[in-house]
Amino acid sequence: MTWDEMAPLLVEATWQTAQMVGWSTLFTVLLGLPLGVALVVFDRGGLLPLPAVKTVLGVVVNVGRSLPFIVLMIAIIPFTRLVVGTTIGTAAVVVPLTVGAVPFFARLVETALREVGADVVQAAQAMGAGRTTIVGKVLLPEAFPGLVAGLTVTVVALIGYSAMAGTVGGGGLGDLAVRYGYQRFETLIMIVTVVVLIVIVQLVQSLGDVVARRLSHK
Amino acid sequence: MIQVSGLRKLYGDTVALDGVDLHVREGEIYGVLGESGAGKSTLLRCVNLLERPTAGTVTVAGQELTALTERELNRARRRIGMIHQHFALLSSRTVAGNVAFPLEVMGVPRAERRRRVAELLDLVGLGGRGGDHPHQLSGGQKQRVGIARALAGDPAVLLSDEATSALDPATTHSILDLLKRLNAELGLTILLITHEMDVVKSVCDSVAIMADGRVRESGRIADLIRTPGSRLTRDIFPLPEPAPPGSVTLTFTGDPQRPVVSETVRKFDVEISILGGSIEELAGGSVGRLRVAVTGDTEPALAYLRERGLIVEVAP
Ligand SMILES: Nc1ncnc2c1ncn2[C@@H]1O[C@H](COP(=O)(O)OP(=O)(O)OP(=O)(O)O)[C@@H](O)[C@H]1O
Ligand SMILES: [Mg+2]
C-alpha cells in the first residue's frame, strides 16, 4: 500500500478515534466527577456522612473497575442497545467506553479530593460555608490540578480502550491496525498506526501535565 | 461574650473535655494553656461547633450556638473569626481571593467585596500583596492573610488555635502585636490557645489552665497572680517548686521599685536572704516574685509585708 492510499484511511481512523474518545471523555466527566465527589462527601467523616450509600457506591465502582474492558463491552451490549438503539458504530462504542471509564475516573477524582487538607475544609466550615459552597469553592478548586492529572490518565486509558472497542464496529485506529495491519499483513500500516497512537498519547499526556502544572500553586 | 457551660466531649472512650466552664468577657484576650492532649483544641472547636459537644452549652455574643439549626449556625459562624496553626489558606486562590472567600459566602456583591478586601489587607499590613499566591508568602505573612480573612465578617470574636506555633520568635511577636492592636482598636474579643507561656504573658488579660479535659484554674491574670498557691504564678516564674521548707515566697504587683524588703529589715529584727526571684512583664504590668529565707522575729515582719500589699506564702 502506498502513502497516498494510506493517508485517507489514517485520517478517517484518527477522526473516529478522536470522536469516540472525545464523546466518552465528556460523558465520563459528567458522570464520574459527581460520583467521585459522592464517594468523598458521603464517607464517614465526610461533609454529609452516609456510610451506607458510600459503601454501595464503592462496591459499584469496584465491580466496574474489576471487569476487563473487553468483557464489560460485551456484557453490556443489551444496555448499549437500550441507550443508542444499536450496538455498532461510533455512537455505540461510546457507551461501553463511558461505562468502563466512569468508575476509573471516579476513583481518581476521589483520590484528588482526599488530597485537599482537612484544615482548609474546616476553615471554610468555620466561616459558615455550607456543603455546596465547600464542594464548589474549596474541594474542587483545590483539587483541580489533581483532577486534571486524573483526567489525563483517563483519556489515555480511553484511547487504549477505544482501540479495542473499535474492532467491534466503532472504527478508529485500533480497528485500522487490526484490519489492514494484522488481517492483510500490511506491516507498514500497522507501524504507522502504532506511531500515530504513541504520538496522540504523548500529546495528551504533555498537555495534561502542562495544564496541571500551570494550575498548581504549591 | 463567650460563655461555655458544662461542656463535655467524648471520642469513643476518650474523654477530651470533662465538664468545662469558661467565661470570656467582651473585649478581652483570653488564653487557654495546657499540655498536649489537655483538650485545648477540642474546646476551641466546640466554641464554633466545628465539633459537636457531647453535653453542655456554648453561647457566643448572646446566641446559644448549641441550640441552633445548621443554617442558623452557619450564619452565626460568620461573626466568629478563626485562625489556624497552619494558616489553612486556599492554595487555588490569590491572597485577595482568600480574603474574599468569607465575603462570597456571605453574599457580598463583587464591588463591595473588592473594597473590603483592600481595606482588610491594609489593616494587616499586606496592602499591595493581594495578587500573590499564598506559597509566595512567608509564614508570618500567611498568618496575616488568615487574620484578614477571619476579620472579613466583622466578627465579635476571634478564635485562634496555636496561631503562632509555626512561626519564629520575631514573627510570633509581630503577629501578637497585630492581635493586640486589633483587640484595642476594634474591641475584638480573642480566645487563643497556646502552649507558650510567653504568649500568655505578653497579650492575655485572662487565662484558663487545662489538664485532662478540665479547667484547673481560670480568671484574670491580675487576680490569679494575687491568689496564693496559684498554678499560673508558679508556671510564670522560674523558681524551683516545691519551695524549700520554711522558705517564704513574696509576690509583688504594681511598682516593683519600692524598697519593701530593705524597709522590713530596717524595721524588724530579721535577716532576709534572697534565694531566687525574677520580675516578669505581663500585659497588665510587671509582677515580681522573690523567694527568701527569713530568720529572726519573722511573724511581725511577714505581717508588715502583707500589709504593704505583698502576697506572702510560707512553705510548710
Ligand atoms: N477527632 C478525634 N478523634 C478522637 N480523639 C480525639 C480527636 N480529637 C482529639 N482527640 C483526643 O482528645 C484529647 C484532647 O485533644 P486536643 O486536640 O483537644 O488536645 P490539645 O490540648 O489541643 O493538644 P495539643 O496541644 O497537642 O494540640 C486527646 O486525648 C486526643 O487524642
Ligand atoms: Mg491542639
UniProtKB/TrEMBL annotation, chain A:
The keyword Transmembrane helix applies. It is a multi-pass membrane protein. The chain crosses the membrane at residues 20-43, 55-77, 83-106, 147-168, 188-212. Coiled coil: none annotated. Keywords: Cell membrane, Membrane, Transmembrane, Transmembrane helix, Transport. It is found in: Cell membrane. It holds the Pfam family BPD_transp_1. Residues 14-205 form the ABC transmembrane type-1 domain. Belongs to the binding-protein-dependent transport system permease family. This is Methionine ABC transporter permease. The lineage of its organism: Bacteria, Bacillati, Actinomycetota, Actinomycetes, Streptosporangiales.
TrEMBL record, chain B:
Keywords: Amino-acid transport, ATP-binding, Cell membrane, Membrane, Nucleotide-binding, Translocase, Transport. Residues 2-237 form the ABC transporter domain. SUPFAM superfamilies: ACT-like, P-loop containing nucleoside triphosphate hydrolases. Pfam families: ABC_tran, NIL. One of its GO terms (molecular function) is ATP binding. PANTHER family: AMINO ACID IMPORT ATP-BINDING PROTEIN, METHIONINE IMPORT ATP-BINDING PROTEIN METN. This is Methionine ABC transporter ATP-binding protein. It comes from Nonomuraea indica.
